[in-house]
Amino acid sequence: MRNRLLEHYAYCPRQCALIHVEQSYEENVYTLRGNRDHRRADEPETELRDDGRVERALPLYSEELGLTGRADVVEFHDDAPFPIEYKHGEQRRHDSGRIQLCAQALCLEEMTGRAVSTGALYHTGSNRRQEVTFDPPLRADTREVIGAVRAQLREQRVPPPVNDDRCPPCSLQRVCMPDAVDAEHRQRREADRLFTAEE
Ligand code: SF4
Fold first, then answer.
1. Which CATH number is 66's domain given?
2. How far is the CA of 161 from the centre of ligand 1 (A)?
3. Domain total in the chain
4. Measured in whole angstroms, how far is the alpha carbon of residue 7 from the centre of its chain?
5. Which domain covers residue 168, as residue numbers?
6. What's the gap in Å between 179 CA and the centre of ligand 1?
7. Taking the CB of residue 112, how many other CB atoms lie within 10 A of it?
8. Ligand 1 center–CA 164 separation, angstroms
9. Residues contacting residue 112 through CB under 8 Å, at least 6 positions apart
């Protein structure tokens, strides 16, 4: 399982299923800008600095979690890894990148045997780093998402739409049709409820 799956699921389980179960993918202005912002971090490179080493596009794995992936940037200070994930635009309310970053930290801990307590999301719109602490709740959430994604892929399940403020910037709106599908789900739930009440 690749760690990008986790970000998709953490943002919206239906988005994850549409991409990874139904193989639907569409670009929009947000994904195109995101690809552009990732370009430098996509090229493998090692940079030696006075305060440590910087690896770009570093392959990651965790045998324990069954994860593979790639970190945009990992800084090593005294051999302690500090992962950094590039995010297009400014910090958002639905910041699914924290789960993805924490999964990278779990991979790095297994790969290096060193504790990884913090990392950062780098928001290209504001040129700012948002430090992320890999505390027990975030680690637990990340492991929960890993389990949920695995179940979704195994069961080939496509959940109903979230139909909230995550939808306008989502590139899959056209294939997802959150309004129409949500209305259909609500009607079906209402019909089930009436049917059960009359029994
Ligand atoms: S449009 Fe909304 S419900 Fe549909 S995949 Fe995107 S975020 Fe999820």
1. 3.90.320.10
2. 6
3. 1
4. 1
5. 3-198
6. 10
7. 14
8. 8
9. 79, 81
